[in-house]
Each structure stands twice: as structure tokens, then as C-alpha cells.
Known about the structure:
The two termini are 19 Å apart. The chain is α+β, with helices and mostly antiparallel strands. The chain has helices at 52-65, 91-101, and strands at residues 5-8, 11-20, 26-34, 37-44, 73-76, 82-87. Strands 1, 2, 3, 4, 5 and 6 form a six-stranded mixed β-sheet that branches. Helices cover 24% and strands 40% of the residues. The protein has one domain: 2-Layer Sandwich (Conserved Hypothetical Protein Mth637, Chain: A), CATH 3.30.1200.10. It has two helices and six strands; from the N terminus they run ββββαββα.
Amino acid sequence: MTSWLRSVDDGVEITVHIQPGAAHSELAGKYGAGEHGEALKVRISARAVEGAANAALTEFMAQCLGVARREVRIVRGEKSRHKVLWAPVAPELARRQIEGNTK
Length: 103
């Protein structure tokens, strides 16, 4: 298991570092082990205005994981670039889906 992906009750928690306002939405690899630890770097085309980037993030991650948007939730970091998401996906499936979509 990687440090940015953690198995929890009924799913996984995914630690992400979001870059809003990017040219297009994409998984951009890992974000270094700084003060927040290792995270998955996610570029999102939506701006960080009135929750638009958070909505775009949950939609994008749902597409990557193959689940409905309403099934992906932000559990920590609602107003931060460093966030923790929850999704009802088996850890190994989540890792394969994410690594298959990462640059």
C-alpha cells in the first residue's frame, strides 16, 4: 500500500494535493513527502472559487475510480490544497485505477 492511499471501513482514503486552475484536469504523479506526507498530485481545470475546484475534484476522481460522483467525498481539507478523499473502492482496485491514469 502507498502512503497516499489508505484502507478504511468500506473503502479507501486518498490523500491529494490539488492544483486548481490548470490547463486541464489530470493526475500528475506524486507530491513529495513534505510536512503533509506523500500525496497524489491532481491538477484541476476549475478555479478555486465558491467550491468549484472541490466539485471538479470529486467528479474527476470519481471518473478515475469508476464510481459515481456522489460516492466520492472530501473528508478533510475542504478549504486547503491538501485534501483527503474517501471512496467506496477496494484499495487494490483504487491503486490500479489511479496508477493507470497517472502521467
